[in-house]
Amino acid sequence: MNALCALLHFCENHGPRTVFCTQAFHTKAHPSPPSTPSSTSPCSPTPFRPTTRPNSNGSSSSYHNPHVQSSTAGTSPKDIDASSTKYQGRSPAAPPAPQVMATSSCPACTAQIPFITITNPDGSEWTQEAKGFYTSDGEDENVHYFGSRNPDDPQLYAAVRHACVRRWESFLSIEFCPGRDGPVIFGDDKNGYVLSYMFKLRDSQARGENRFYSFIILMTDRVYLVSCWQFLVG
Questions:
Q1: What is the DSSP letter of 93?
Q2: Is 42 left (phi over 0), alpha (psi -120 to 50) or beta?
Q3: pTM beyond 0.90, yes or no
Q4: What is the full DSSP assignment across 27-66?
Q5: How many CB atoms lie within 10 A of CB 151?
Q6: How far apart are CA 171 and CA 53, in angstroms?
Q7: Backbone torsions φ then ψ of 12, nearest 5 degrees
Q8: C-alpha 6: how far from chain center
Q9: Maximum CA pair distance of the chain?
C-alpha cells in the first residue's frame, strides 16, 4: 500500500496542525543508511506523491518522479555545520546557535523528536534535533519508512496540509453535535483521498477537558482506500 500516515491535532491556540507523519519509500536497491541516526532523509527511495496522470485507457494512476529529490536530502552533519557558520561568522568546529521553537507551535501540537550528538573532526561535540526517524521494513527489503513532523516534498506537504485543514473544518461544523469520534473518507483527484479516524484524549487543562486528534491515511487510489475500510477501521 503506497500511502502516507499522519497524526493531526486541532490546537486551541494555533488551529489545525500536523503533529507527525510517516511515508513509505520504494527502491530496487538498498539505500545507504544515514550517517547518524535519523539525521538525514533517504535519498534513493521514491516517495509517494499525490499526483495523477492519465493512462491509455483514460483512467488515472499515481506517478512518481525518481529524479526529483528534496533539497535537504543527503545533508550530512558537516554540511549543516558549514551552512550555519556561513551566516553566523563562526568557525566550522563551533556549534550553531540554539534554535528557539517557533511561536506558532506548542507541546500539544508538536512532536517531540530526540536530539542527537554530532562529533566534529576536531573531536568537539554538539547536539541538534534529529530530522526524523528512518526504518526498514522487516518483510520487504525494498520498502523503507521515514517519519518526521512534515513531508519534505512541497507537493506532498501541501496535500497533507490541505487534508489537515479540511478535516478540522468538518470537525468545527459539527462541534456541538454528538458522535464526532470515528472514521470518515474525503478527498479529490488533485489532493488525494483521505481516511481519517478522530479520537479524543482527556485533558483537564483543555477546553471541555478534551483534546481532539485524528489519524489519517492519504493515498491517490480511492477504490483501494475504500476497500481497506474494514481493515483500517476495525
A1: T
A2: beta
A3: no
A4: -SSPPPPPSSTT-S--SSSEEP---EEE-TTS-EEE---T
A5: 27
A6: 32
A7: -65, -25
A8: 6
A9: 62
Distances (CA, A) of 92 to 34, 110, 127, 224: 21, 30, 14, 50
Which residues are paired to 137 by β-bridges? none
The three-class DSSP label of residue 87 is helix
Q: What is the pLDDT of residues 153-169, one digit of tens each?
A: 888 888 888 888 887 66
C-alpha 32/C-alpha 172 separation (Å) is 44
Q: Residue 114 carries which DSSP code?
A: P
Q: Which three cell numbers stand for residue 49?
A: 506523491
Whole-number Å distance between alpha carbons of 58 and 152: 31
Model confidence pLDDT, tens digit, residues 131-148: 778 888 888 888 888 888
Sequence-ordered alpha helix ranges (H) in the chain: 77-88, 154-173, 222-227, 229-233
Going by C-alpha positions, the residue among 152, 107, 119, 148 that lies closest to residue 35 is 119
Q: How far apart are CA 93 and CA 121, in angstroms?
A: 8
How far apart, in Å, are the Cα atoms of 88 and each of 91, 97, 222? 9, 8, 48
Q: Report the alpha-carbon distance of residue 230 to residue 113 in Å, rounded.
A: 32
Residues 6+ apart with CB under 8 A from 69: 43
Percent helix, strand and coil across the chain, each rounded to 5?
20, 30, 45
Q: Shortest CA distance to 118 belongs to which of 41, 37, 32?
A: 37
Query: How big is the chain, counted in residues?
Result: 234
